[in-house]
Write a structure and sequence with these properties.
The protein has 16 helices and no strands. By secondary structure, it is mainly alpha-helical. It has a domain of 200 residues: MFS general substrate transporter like domains (Growth Hormone, Chain: A). α4 crosses α13 and α10 packs antiparallel against α13.
């Protein structure tokens, strides 16, 4: 599945760069673009959930958060790489950029796909999956229709993941909406805001595995909840700094928000969500739960644009919306079973009654 999603993403991305223009093929051009973007979205849902599941099931029991956090560190590294690739392209004269320059990054994606395919073609199945597959009792075999078992036995966990994944609203607001607000409304130079984004990703690259290491010691829930609540608080001074054109504080609060505090939740969710499900349905549970949550979070810029007010305090409804989403995410994580000491074979089973206030079937 990981090889399939990689090739689907790679082919779709390459073909975006090869698309004829509207002047050449008319309305078929944007239609094809939308189709290719949908294929990218389909591949991304299986890609991230598959990578998280495989990493989780390969990791030692006492370091599962640390190992799975590297799937998110890879995301941060990819964002940094993408920005660095586009920087020289964006320096082209505008007519050349619009004519052919924008296609170059899409064509370069073929290199990433080739390297990824070389890595993945020899990946073995995880020990947990192999153990399930080798059991003689058919009741314990990997689910043939995992989605049926998922919603009949793990629906509460799917809902929990959906609501916890709303923490992604913080990332979307930070990387999309505040960039537009700062550049188009407050007229802060785009290069300044892009520098904030790049530096925040660099900080996150190092912060994510550190938070994950802490989660292996004290648990998933406290680290995730800290990240969600801290982000809910820091979005206010960050947007205030933008509204007052204070460049120094924009950098300070931007790096604290996205680079440091949000990384606590972002680095822990691969292990926390994955440990809510058994091996039989883990990939399905993570893929469906996270992608619904991320899709809801994807509407955040649209919602923010609708609630954005006028005047110096017009940003406050957007900050409030982000805070509410982060609080819902924290509450969902609080209701989850703490699993950092639970053996892999027992994940997804009914939580013990003693000492697990608020716990339900994971």
């Amino acid at each position: 599945m990981l090889t399939f999603t990689l090739l689907l993403m790679g082919v779709s991305t390459f073909l975006v760069g090869a698309l004829p223009t509207y002047d050449q093929i008319g309305i078929a051009s944007p239609i094809c673009l939308v189709i290719l973007r949908l294929l990218q979205g389909i591949s991304a849902s299986g890609e991230q959930a598959g990578a998280n599941s495989m990493t989780l099931e390969h990791a030692p029991d006492h370091r599962r958060a640390f190992f799975t956090s590297f799937t998110l560190s890879g995301t941060q590294a990819g964002l940094i790489l993408a920005t660095l690739v586009f920087l020289p392209i964006s320096a082209l004269p505008e007519d050349q950029l619009l004519a052919w320059g924008w296609r170059i990054p899409f064509f370069l994606s073929a290199i990433v796909v080739a390297v990824g395919f070389w890595v993945r073609r020899t990946l073995p199945e995880t020990p947990a999956f192999a153990e399930e597959e080798s059991r003689a009792d058919k009741q314990h075999a990997p689910a043939k229709m995992p989605i049926v078992e998922l919603f009949s036995k793990h629906s509460s966990s799917v809902l929990r993941v959906i609501f916890a994944a709303l923490v992604s609203v913080v990332s979307t607001i930070f990387s999309v909406f505040t960039l537009s607000y700062a550049v188009n409304t407050m007229h802060i130079p785009r290069a300044t805001m892009l520098t904030v984004l790049v530096l925040a990703n660099v900080v996150a690259l190092f912060a994510i595995p550190l938070w994950a290491t802490l989660a292996d010691r004290i648990g998933r829930r406290p680290v995730f909840i800290f990240g969600a609540l801290g982000s809910a608080a820091l979005i206010w001074p960050y947007m205030w700094a933008i509204s007052t054109l204070n460049i120094t504080l924009i950098f300070v609060f931007g790096l604290l928000l996205s680079g440091v505090v949000y990384s606590a939740a972002n680095g822990v969710w691969p292990s926390m969500y994955g440990e809510m499900f058994s091996t039989r349905v883990r990939l399905s549970g993570m893929a469906i739960g996270t992608q619904i949550g991320f899709a809801l979070g994807g509407f955040a810029p649209t919602i923010s644009a609708a609630v954005l007010g006028e005047g110096p305090n017009g940003w406050m409804p957007v900050a409030l919306f982000t805070t509410v989403a982060a609080l819902v995410s924290a509450a969902s994580a609080w209701s989850a079973r703490e699993t950092y000491k639970v053996p892999m074979s027992q994940l997804g089973q009914q939580a013990p009654a003693r000492g697990t206030r608020g716990a339900v079937a994971a």
